[in-house]
Amino acid sequence: MKARLCVLGVMIALAAVLFAGDSWEEKLFTAWDQKECTSVLTKSPWAFSNSFGAAQNLGMIETGARGEREQTVTFRFRFLSAKPVRMAFTRLQLLKNPAGAPPEAKIREQVDAPADAQNRIAVQIEFTVDPPSSMEVRRIHNFLLNATLATFRDSTKLSSSNKIVLAPLEYLSPNPTRSNGCLIFPRTNEKGESLFTGEEKWISFQAEISGYKVYYRLKPEKMKFEEKFEL
């Protein structure tokens, strides 16, 4: 009997894990902790990454042989124009400085406001190099710092299964007030109609950054928040 109860308890626990919703679905964003905010910014339907491995020459080691170590370059992307992402960034600011939290109405205004004055689609670019390589970090950073819209125009696309293929309208390079680069895409056509509805089978992003060709397919059916498609 005890054994059966033990097995039943394990099954219930597993079911709870399998059917548990994500934090952005279950909790108000004002209750998210740092880990939950990071999850929205890195592993949610509105964030994705591509990693690239390459052998890093370490020079002569003690045995006299030439050593190599795998170096991984990871590019992370997130839709700043998606409300959950704005919520995560706002919540992180509140966690860092709870004493300086603005009134609730102001907080709500921040997360409800579009990321761009024209309510366009904004994709933030972030990267890491592991193990840290000052040469590669500097090379990619300089690329993003000096890139222009022309740099991305031919290689960068936001596409969908509905035969929508969009080139970026603008590129915002890193600066003292913006730590990461950002690509801006149109949200509507000439008639003001949404180019993406959430009913697509897939939405893809592709780009070439400092010689790295990135590509990712998103799942629009997962990109709904508070019963609204967010992109």
Plain-language structure description:
The protein has one domain (22-229). 31% of the residues lie in helices and 30% in strands. It has helices at residues 2-19, 23-26, 34-42, 83-96, 104-112, 134-146, 149-153, and strands at residues 47-60, 66-79, 121-130, 157-160, 165-166, 170-172, 181-185, 203-209, 212-218, 224-225, 228-229. Residues 1-20 and 58-65 have low confidence and may be disordered.
What is the gist of this entry?
It is built from seven helices and eleven strands. The protein has helices at residues 2-19, 23-26, 34-42, 83-96, 104-112, 134-146, 149-153; strands at 47-60, 66-79, 121-130, 157-160, 165-166, 170-172, 181-185, 203-209, 212-218, 224-225, 228-229. The longest helix has 18 residues, at 2-19.
Main β-sheet description: 5 strands, antiparallel
- The Rg value, from CA coordinates, equals 21 Å
Distance between the termini: 52 Å
Low-confidence stretches: 1-20, 58-65
